[in-house]
Design brief:
Layout: H1 2-24, E1 36-40, E2 43-46, E3 57-59, E4 65-68, H2 72-84, E5 107-109, E6 114-118, E7 130-133, E8 143-150, E9 154-158, E10 169-177, E11 180-183, E12 188-193
Antiparallel strand pairs: 1-2, 3-4, 5-6, 6-12, 7-8, 7-12, 8-9, 9-10, 10-11
């Protein structure tokens, strides 16, 4: 019995080590880390390899922190800086930290200087809104993307660092129920708007 517990423990440790290594290395040899894979309004989306890969910090010429290169946060902050001329008062934090769970729907998120909407919300999502995702067992930092298209029953998002085989664009159903708009994804906490 003791031998079986040791074998099972050893296997679990090897699986965990393998998982954490896979988050750091590039498993998709079709792309190189830092390669352009998409763009939205002339702001480039770069490939990051493993979701935990870090390639240094990106700062603007005036010293504003955009975040860790090729991570999801870096893309959305670079987009807001370049396309919308927006600097967040709190320029640090993980993706999940963009959403303040203490705020009510439609209130100002002072750390980001953006209006925050909960999922569901009275306000329909719009192009350029930031979409904030909760953490998971495999991703404790959460995720953030930008809405690139909105129809009556669907949104399209653009994202950086969805994983080595993830796509830069995804679509989610959008429903209006009892006067509230909901993006159909259990991980989506809400969206932020300039």
């Amino acid at each position: 019995m003791k031998k079986q517990i040791l074998i099972i423990s050893g296997i679990l440790i090897l699986v965990l080590i393998g998982f954490f290594i896979s988050k750091k290395i590039n498993l998709n040899r079709n792309y190189e880390v830092g390669q352009k894979i998409d763009e939205f309004n002339d702001v480039i989306v770069y490939y990051n390899g493993g979701v935990g890969n870090v390639s240094g910090r990106r700062l603007t010429d005036d010293g504003y922190n955009l975040g860790l290169k090729y991570q999801c946060v870096e893309f959305v902050k670079r987009y807001y800086y370049e396309e919308l001329n927006h600097k967040m008062p709190d320029s640090y934090g993980h993706a999940k930290d963009f959403f303040n769970s203490n705020l009510k729907d439609g209130k100002k998120n002072k750390q980001r200087n953006l209006t925050q909407f909960t999922n569901p919300s009275k306000s329909k999502p719009k192009v350029n809104d930031l979409v904030i995702y909760s953490e998971t067992i495999l991703n404790r930092y959460g995720h953030v993307s930008i809405i690139s298209k909105v129809t009556e029953n669907e949104i399209e998002i653009i994202q950086q660092n969805p994983g080595p085989f993830g796509k830069s664009r995804e679509k989610f159903k959008l429903i209006n129920k009892s006067g509230k708009w909901q993006i159909q994804n259990d991980r989506i906490l809400g969206w932020l708007r300039k």
